[in-house]
Design brief:
The complex is a heterodimer of chains A (327) and B (228). With 327 residues, chain A is mainly α. Chain A has a single domain (4-320), classed as ABC transporter involved in vitamin B12 uptake, BtuC. Helix content of chain A is 71%, strand content 1%. Chain A has a two-stranded antiparallel ribbon. In chain A, helix 6 (171-194) packs across helix 7 (196-206). Chain B has a domain at 4-86 and 151-225: 3-Layer(aba) Sandwich (Rossmann fold). Chain B is 34% helix and 27% strand. In chain B, helix 3 runs parallel beside helix 6 (132-144). The radius of gyration of chain B is 17 Å and the shape is globular. Classes of the chains: A mainly alpha (327), B alpha/beta (228). The interface between A and B is medium-sized, with 22 and 28 residues.
């Protein structure tokens, strides 16, 4: 068994060493693949706040991923076509600046999470899952019919957006940005877990009625967690769109939401580095098994089945010998 | 002036009415025993006071009407509840259970550890792995961390080993002598209740049937309404 901190350190070391090796070996595709791992890990890390700590099984987190993606797509589209995004009451121009896009993606995803959270957190259990799924489907079909931004075909962005002082078209530099953001989010999440808010949220997941008896409002705790979670997933969506230079309604699909949950379950629900390990395994299977067969999801399903049956703490739990979901 | 004022309190579970007129007053620093046989409405009264079930009548705490407040706001006003059945947050450690409930005031981790040295020795231990008695101490500590003005203990010694029960009764005695906290006690041990409480209120079929000083509680009354 490995100490969880050591395992986390090894995973982080791997995320730094692999792209550096790929740079040395002149394997830019490996860097792109690792960037995909990091962005999916970031999206799942966002969901992990709601699901892992707050116990909110959201099957609609693709909404925030898609909002992040479309925020990037729409802003960059208007910048590349030199058309304003809006002319009334104020002129709003598009932008190719990553920091501006990130902030916009975070704010819009947080706003959406707030509205969806207020409505869906009135329910629990299977009803919560269904209502978040319904929101996801609403956004999915809306973007399909949103012809101004490509509708079903999606929207291509010609050049990756810029970041001051970096050439983001160089894969390793864009990777550096993504892994930097992942580190920031994981650090903040680790602080959040042990903060009074994180502890109260964890308690609210376990026994909501008892949390009320100590003066805390479980609904408010869960809503705040849902908003933070949505904001992080929105940021990941903006990065994902920049990685592919393409956005499409599939970013809003329920399959996307499901994949994020699968990543977390594989890695370990509520584990700080669960989403990272889950994303590594997921992308590795997708890449290697996907090259052998189109039906690689069968193997993914098998792994998921084994983890659910025999390793409830996910791979992190299995490797560290800790079964429970406690972070 | 009463800290908690309950008058003609009624409450129902759906269509089943459980309380038909509970009267109960507690002053600051006072220890009151809420007594009665099983199923007479003691725990329901506690739930109604903590706004965990809807109720009607008069329910005031520190001059504030509680009937329009949600449960978590009653706790913020200063009503700390140690509910029946403990139910600590099992995925959290002892210290995390206490920190999750912490509100500003004189009660902090050090003071809770002082009251329950067993908890002080197990701060990093998962709450799920504690013994029943230690979990009960944690439940009391968690309620104290909210810095209540009224502490309600619902069957705090139920199902515990005699030695642990003694420790908990000693802690309640310490709270009585060393703080100005009002305490509402529900327990089956009439002997211990009599030792620590100043007054008693007896419920029968969801209504108050006797109220007075503990010294006035004669064996006849006790036998008639409590069965002991």
């Amino acid at each position: 068994m490995i100490n969880e901190r050591i395992l986390n350190g090894l995973l982080m070391l791997g995320l730094i060493a692999v792209p550096l090796w790929a740079l040395w070996a002149d394997e830019p595709f490996t860097i792109t693949l690792t960037t995909r791992v990091v962005i999916l890990a970031l999206a799942a890390a966002g969901l992990n706040i709601a699901l892992g700590i707050g116990g909110l099984v959201s099957l609609g987190h693709a909404v925030f991923f898609g909002i992040g993606g479309y925020t990037m797509g729409v802003l960059a589209y208007h910048a590349q076509t030199f058309t304003p995004l809006a002319e009334w009451p104020w002129v709003i121009e598009g932008t190719k600046s990553m920091p501006v896009i990130w902030v916009s993606a975070i704010l819009l995803a947080a706003l959406a999470a707030f509205v969806i959270g207020i409505l869906s957190l009135r329910t629990s259990g299977v009803y919560f899952i269904m209502i978040t799924l319904a929101f996801g489907q609403m956004f999915f079909f809306f973007t399909i019919s949103w012809s101004a931004y490509g509708g079903e075909d999606g929207l291509s962005i010609y050049v990756r957006n810029g970041f001051p002082g970096l050439n983001t078209l160089v894969p390793i530099q864009f990777y550096g940005l993504c892994v930097g953001l992942l580190c920031v989010v994981l650090f903040l999440t680790s602080r959040l877990i042990h903060s009074p808010f994180g502890l109260a949220l964890n308690a609210a997941r376990q026994i909501p009625s008892r949390v009320e008896t100590v003066g805390l409002n479980p609904m408010r705790l869960k809503l705040l967690a849902f908003v933070i979670s949505g904001a992080v997933t929105g940021l990941a969506g903006a990065l994902f769109a920049d990685l592919n230079r393409f956005v499409s309604p599939t970013m809003f699909s329920w399959q996307m939401s499901g994949e994020l949950i699968v990543l977390i379950i594989i890695g370990g629900v509520g584990r700080l580095f669960g989403p990272v390990l889950g994303a590594i395994v997921f992308v590795a299977l997708e890449h290697w098994l996907g090259g052998i067969s189109d039906y690689w999801h069968i193997f993914l399903g098998l792994i998921l089945l084994l983890i659910v049956l025999f390793a409830r703490g996910g791979l992190v739990g299995l490797l560290t010998g800790k079964e429970g979901p406690h972070v | 002036m009463s800290l908690l004022q309950v008058s003609q309190l009624t409450a129902s579970y759906g269509v089943s009415q459980a309380l038909f007129g509970v009267d109960l007053d507690i002053s600051a620093g006072e220890v009151v025993a809420l007594m009665g046989r099983n199923g007479m409405g003691k725990s329901t009264t506690v739930k109604a006071i903590c706004r965990m079930i809807a109720s009607t009548g008069t329910l005031r705490f520190a001059g504030r009407d509680l009937l329009d407040l949600p449960s978590h706001k009653t706790a913020r006003l200063g009503i700390g509840l140690v509910p029946e059945g403990r139910r600590c947050f099992g995925d959290l450690t002892v210290i995390e259970n206490l920190q999750a409930a912490s509100r500003p005031g004189p009660w902090d981790l050090a003071r809770v550890s002082q009251l329950f040295p067993r908890l002080g020795e197990r701060t990093r231990q998962g709450a799920r792995s504690l013994s029943g008695g230690e979990q009960q101490m944690l439940a009391i500590g968690r309620a104290l961390m909210t810095n209540p003005r009224l502490l309600i203990l619902d069957e705090a010694t139920e199902g515990l080993a005699p030695l642990i029960r003694q420790e908990i009764w000693a802690a309640i005695g310490q709270l009585k002598t060393e703080t100005d906290m009002a305490i509402l006690l529900i327990d089956k041990s009439v002997k211990e209740l009599a030792q620590v409480s100043e007054r008693a209120v007896i419920l029968e079929r969801g209504a108050t049937v006797w109220s007075g000083r503990m010294t006035d509680l004669t064996p006849d009354i006790s036998q008639k309404y409590v069965g002991v």
